[in-house]
């Protein structure tokens, strides 16, 4: 038995087959070509399903960018990255076409569940997941379940205001968390302070070479990151925070920077029970989480 798992990102669609025990049996990827719109995207999804579907397939789990009402499998908001995507009820479309169960959920929520099922959050019931990328995405798991909120768009941590009258954000507001603590923000900060355009990997390489200037930039950026974390810790009192995105490759090195910074801001008893971990399932987390939700739906 297997599940077809699809993870739709802004630039890439990852897809594959996942076993009922959470093993990724097969995986591959193709370009999203988001600007070509929803019809093109649907064609790609159909092609993937028709390539992978066999007599052992029990359902389709889809993780995707954007604000998604996972209870009904519909895209309800977000940016217009994929024209026509908002308003699409993918679950309805797929279940009608293929006559097997399907789910659709936001990618960070899926990553959180994927990490809970087969990664860094195994055995944890109350934890948060934050992904650092172009923006900052969030997922909240309480008592082993996603906290979705009234209209299913909870955990948009990236738009919490942390600086008054700060940098303009795409959401219309100023000073949003993601404008200071995302990967985009780190690159901007490095360019402002040092006057050189480097990518994330290059910045961390400089830090590993004991380049003090870059260490200061990373420390400042991490300080913004933990400003947001401190607020979230006081609200949720989590036992674990999983940090995902490209920076998770920095492992314990970055984890220690975050931890040190947090110690200056958060009361001890909150931190004593809190673990910070880098995501372990990287590119597979979205597919795993979508598969986990599919299994929950069938149950
Ligand atoms: Zn914003």
From TrEMBL:
Superkingdom to which the source organism belongs: Bacteria
InterPro entries: ATPase_NBD, ROK, ROK_cs
Signal peptide range: none
Pfam families: ROK
Name under which the protein is recorded: ROK family protein
UniProt organism field: Cetobacterium somerae ATCC BAA-474
